[in-house]
Write the structure tokens for this entry.
Amino acid sequence: MMKFNHPYHLVTMSPWPLFCSLNLLITMSSMLTMFWQFKFNLLIFTMILLYLNLSQWWRDIIRESTIQGFHTSIVMKGLQSGMILFILSEVMFFMSFFWCYFHMYLSPSIEIGSIWYPTNLIIFNPYNIPLLNTLILLSSGVSITYCHYSILESNFKESISSMWLTIILGSIFSYFQYLEYNESFYSINDSVYGSIFFMLTGFHGLHVMIGTTFNSIMLIRLNNLHFSPYHLFGFEASSWYWHFVDLVWLFLYLFIYWLIF
């Protein structure tokens, strides 16, 4: 039996990174097929396949952290640093779109009449669905924070209930965002405002769905008692990500909806 005299985790060979990379390539190709030919079958199939591959990868990571005990305090610090860097990269990602928005807001193009927003667009009332979605996301941030403190107090019944509430609120937000898109009087092709609006809100909606999936996995782990008050980084990572999604939406609501109304 091999002995390890160091606190680091030497990851074993895994097929899942390769499978997920190939799956993402096929998913992007299927998205292009959907955009140009309106065929959804291949995209649905590749998304299901991607979730299956990711579930196997997550299963191995959970097994390494719980049963095998490979996630030492040193490894946990590395995972925390990695999650922080990932969120910072997401901040830069959204900052690029906000930069584009404020460039057009402060110096509108002559093609749209040198005013912002274009006068021929009927924009959303920020006090209708957008305000409701803001309250929903802020409430979900409160519920996931309550879930965190419940875990710290070893109150797992309350933590499971509050995590369920967080997932339900995130799903309701996604549904209302879908309704808002259906009621829109403009599309991504209608001027630079339409392009920026749907890019920002669309990518944020994608992050909400990713965060909801992340929280669902944490709910499964809570039901299996994988967390303790001293070992709960998986949950902390999901809560960090969810608070980041909340913060991005607040900026979206203030600048995309409310500021120009």
In short: The two ends are 68 Å apart (CA to CA). Residues 12-70 form a domain with the Helix Hairpins fold (CATH 1.10.287.70).
